[in-house]
Amino acid sequence: MSFKMVFLPPNSQHNIDFMTRLQDSVPDANLVAPMTEDEAVTELSDADAAFGTMNARLVAAAPKLRWLQAPAAAPPAGYYFDELIAHPVQVSNFREIYNDHISVHIIAMMLSFTKHLNLYRDHQRDRSWNKLVGDQYNNIFLPESTVLIVGVGGIGTETARLCQALGCNVVGVDARWESPGARDHVDEMRDPSELDEVLPQADFVVLTIPHTPQTEGMFNASKFALMKESAIFINIGRGMTTKLDDLNDALRSGSIGGAGLDVYEIEPLPAEHPLWDAPNTILTPHIAADEGRHLGERRYEVVSDNMRRFAAGEALRNVVDKENWF
Could you give the 3-state DSSP secondary structure of residue 280? Predict the structure, then answer.
C-alpha cells in the first residue's frame, strides 16, 4: 500500500538526507519535507503518517493521520498534549536503541562513586597526593551492594544485567515488566506501590523512568529521607522526575551519600544552581545517549521497519500509550 508521510519542520539537511534514505527502503511511499508550519498544514491535509513534533494546529490539519513517529525515545515535556491524545493517530518512539549507551554511563557513575574517581580527579587538578581514608570512603562494596532500578524497561534491563555481572543484588520497580530479559536480570521485582518499602535497602537508587503524569516530581524530599545516608542517587531517565532543590538539600545535609545526574528539572542547569558544587556529586550535561556509534543506523532501522509495517497494514514497533506518554 502506498502512503504519504510528512517530515515535520524544522527540517535540517540531516533530516532531508535521512528522509531520502528512507524513501529508498519503501519506494511506493510519498515522503515530503515542508520547511514551514504553513507548508506542513497543507501537506498534512491528506497525509497518512508523519515524523517529528506536532502542535494543536498541525493535529487539526491532519484528519487522515494514522501514524506519528516521535523523534526520541522519550520526547520532552509537552510532546503529548490533549489534542494529540484525543486524535486516533498511533505514536511510536525510539525506545530500545539507547540501552547499551545509557547503561554503560550508569555503570561508569557507579564505579566512579565506589572508587571515588570523581574526588581523585579534583585532587589531580590540585596536584594533591591525598589518599582518602576512613569508613565513609569504604561504605559501599560494589559486589555486595544492592542496586534499586526504578524503571526496568530496555535501559533498566541492560543496567541490571551489567550490575549482576559485577555481583550486585538488583531490585527492580516497574509497573509493566515487559522488557525482554527483565526477569532474568532482576533478583527481586516490586510494584511501584512498594517503592517506599525498598528505598531504605538500596546502596544505589537508579532512575531510568520516563517523564509521565505519574512520575513528575516523584523523587522529592520524602523519598530522599527514606534512603540510606550512604546511598548514591543516579538519574539518567528524565529530569522532571526529580526535585533538584530537594536533592540539593539531601546532599548538603548528609541525608544521602552522593548523586550522579545526566538529566535535570531545568536544562541547561543554571550556572548559579547550588548543585554544581554539592558534595560528592557528578553532573554530566544530558549526554548519556548523545550521538554515538550505531545510533543513526538504529534510528533508520526502526523507522524503515515501521514504514514497511505501515505499508503492509501490520502492527507498528514501539507504540506509545499516549495518555501516559510512554
Answer: coil
> Which sign does the torsion angle of CA 20, 25, 26, 28 carry?
positive
- Considering the domain architecture, whether residues 128 and 273 belong to the same structural domain is answered as yes
pTM (2 d.p.): 0.92
Same-domain status, 27 and 55: yes
Query: What's the total number of domains in the chain?
Result: 2
Domain membership of residue 249 as a residue range? 99-283
Task: Assess contact for 157 and 182: CB atoms under 8 A.
Answer: yes
Which ranges of the chain have pLDDT less than 50?
none
Q: What are phi and psi of 206, to 5 degrees?
A: -115, 120
**Residues 60 and 152 placed together within one structural domain of the fold:** no
pLDDT of residue 156: 96
C-alpha cell at 155: 535501559
Give the chain's count of helices (H) and strands (E). Answer: 12, 12
Identify whether residues 307 and 184 lie together within a single domain: no
Say if residue 80 is in the same domain as residue 114: no
Q: What CATH number is given to the structural domain containing 87? A: 3.40.50.720
- Do 259 and 123 fall into the same domain? yes
End-to-end Cα separation, the chain, in angstroms: 28
Q: Hey, what long-range contacts does 285-293 have (CB within 8 A, 24 or more apart)?
A: 286/239, 286/262, 287/262, 288/98, 288/101, 288/102, 288/105, 288/106, 288/236, 288/262, 289/73, 289/98, 289/101, 289/102, 290/101, 292/101
State the pLDDT at residue 200. Answer: 98
DSSP code, position 35: S
193 CA to centre of own chain: 21
Q: Please provide residue 92's backbone torsions phi and psi, each rounded to the nearest 5 degrees.
A: -120, 160
